[in-house]
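Subject: mismatched residue count in predicted assembly?

I count 240 residues in my input, but I want to confirm that the predicted structure covers every chain. Input:
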Amino acid sequence: MGFDPLTLKYDVNGLIPAIAQDEDSGEVLMMAWMNANAVLRTLQSGRVTYWSRSRQAFWVKGETSGHVQELVDFRVDCDRDCLLLRVRQTGPACHTNRRSCFYTALRDGGEVEILTPETG
Amino acid sequence: MGFDPLTLKYDVNGLIPAIAQDEDSGEVLMMAWMNANAVLRTLQSGRVTYWSRSRQAFWVKGETSGHVQELVDFRVDCDRDCLLLRVRQTGPACHTNRRSCFYTALRDGGEVEILTPETG
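Triage response: the counts match. Full output below for your records.
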């Protein structure tokens, strides 16, 4: 692979934000963080792998839930400090069982839930 | 307005990442940062206002370029530490004059530009 993950810009914790977008629907599913090794693992495996800041460990998305993200396209922004991952999402992306983590919207000054948890 | 921007989770610098997505096309345009006051200004004005980390100042998107972002919907993620802004984008969102900042994709192990600068 010619691409070197170290050419990306990481923050003081060595992390870069990664936005996951559903390849088919265009829906923004979630945002999480990667370090250079997580970028490498994602590119090598085709399976989106974040860095869990709370667990301080690799987080192979869907490893326990089965709600995996298959990498379809890997994009870098103009500043090289943010990633956009076009993915094929199996099941819900959010740990609340909703399709997307962005299920809360502000409407008329109050918060409303615009997605309900999936069942089954 | 019933919503209090201080109920969001900010990082050690008092910032929260905000993803701007084109309301019509679903295209992810850019990611930038907001502090609580930028969130407030965005909600009150309907004009997306970030916090510029390099300039340490409010950044009313498009104030000088005219490439404004009109807020259509404001969404919060499950952890309340990331925002998704559905926007109506005038002109290109990227300072390189491309529609989106995510114009670089990895293909066959190399970087390719998938968007060209807009003219006129």
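Residues 13-90 of chain B form a domain with the Ubiquitin-like (UB roll) fold (CATH 3.10.20.810). Marking this ticket as 'not a bug'.
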